[in-house]
Amino acid sequence: MSADPTSDVPPVSPSGPLPTSTLLAAFPGPAIWLDSAHAVAAANAAAEELLSAGGRWLTDIQGWLATCSVAPGLRSLPVELPRGVMIVEWAATPLPDGDILLLGRDATLERQLRQTLIESRRRYKDLVEVSSDFAWETGSDGRFVFVTPKGALGYTPDALIGRNPKDLAVTEWGDLPLPFDSRRPVDQAELWLKRVDDLPACFVVSAVPLFGPQGEWMGARGVCRETTEQVLRSAELARVRNREKMLAHIVHTLRDQLDAQKALHVAAAETARALGADGCRIYRATETGALRPAADFAAEIPEELRSDLSRPVLEEIAGSEDQHELTLGGNRLLAARTEHRQAVNGAVVIWRGDDSDPWDEEDRMLLSGVADHIGIAHAHLAYQERLRRLSERDGLTGLFNRRTFFERLDEALSRPDTGPSALLYVDLDNFKAVNDLHGHQQGDAVLVAIGGLLTNGVRPGDLPGRLGGDEFVLWLGRTDEAQAVTVAERLLAGMVALRHLSAGPDKPLGLSIGIAVHRVGSETLQELTDRADSAMYDAKKRGKGHYAVAPAPRGESSPVAEASL
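User: That's the sequence. What structure does it adopt?
Assistant: Structure tokens below.
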């Protein structure tokens, strides 16, 4: 029989909080106990390592605490260790008798990732500038509102701002539309313009239109590269332009596309087009390291890829620094893994029919550049997902937080096909007694258990949330009053299994539930919430451990139901 992994952790005392030494030792990161004079009274092993490294960080922490008149909150400071600089985010918690508990979290990777993303965006901006002779933007009147600082056509930026681009077109262009006022994206269009000395110059223009919130045209934005000396360009120059086109689109996608998942689909399309491939599939690594499809672009996915590549092939791609080339069915495949900070986070696979030209060195170079950018995109997507989880969920219970719950409920109620629904407003009975008698650690255990009770058995589309403290909500879509009452009774019955967490037999844990049934068009979100809240108080007045159904909104009739367990 294997040893219990928790056998070395002392059990929680039912009669009081954990001892200082036990609390410090149990914390996974650095933890320090400061006395009322802000001197170190105790520290766990992780904190001892930081203290032994010396430096000003402890003095800065003490100075910060000395200037705080309320709960200090969070503070991030660098600590120089033999293995390198570590960024530690400290959370300071006031304790009785003026003592303070410092709990640290290693934020080095997060800080480095944020800095990497900032540097990447700056790099993309620089690449756009160096990959063109000039970048520009026109306003709603069709005139220039921005030109890169180096100017264009021999003009200074000041000489071009406010000027109509039509004045720069050669006479032969006549009244033909220009990319500067295009209502649709322009990609690598040839355009002849006049220099300041009236000599003609040929440019390749890429542009995108700009639209306002109401769909009105607001201007256009793009870049121009002069090709006067290379109108009859060589095959080598064609490949260079193809690479620049790929880079410009990838940079544009990652810079301006807020949705990183959508950016991957755009990148897949641009990769296939730039490499002359029949299709492209972008893989992303899961938490276990397995590669899963994240984006596709192809007129038709080959049957061999429809059910995905075999796991051994994907593992071979991820495990090799070199690109992987193979024939699968009637297709030639070329694959490269993607990385971020030397960690493999996905792969890019492109394919052509076996009757097409073989992959050459230029194709491999282009794919290598794409893989570099996709690796950063994967890291950006992972960061977005982490931020979304942090912003939407309650950190303790994992339920939707107040803001996200009401935003999603408002969206659900605004849909015309919502149908009848019900809002359950749930308040814990005798919760304060748990905190007072057993401490906040057991109080947190109660809140986590209630979160599990609310999510157990809910249907897809139902919304459980924590409003804060001991107040919870549960929205049930397409639910009538009888169904809502059934759910409330199930919640009340479920509290029986949590009675062991109560403060005592005389103060049993329980729920007071207010039910408000909603019908489309009958009331606002605030009115629905107020009715459910009021019904919850009606239930609590009956002695706790009850539910009550709120009266119907004005103009409707419905009896008030009350019950308890």
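The chain has a mean pLDDT of 83.
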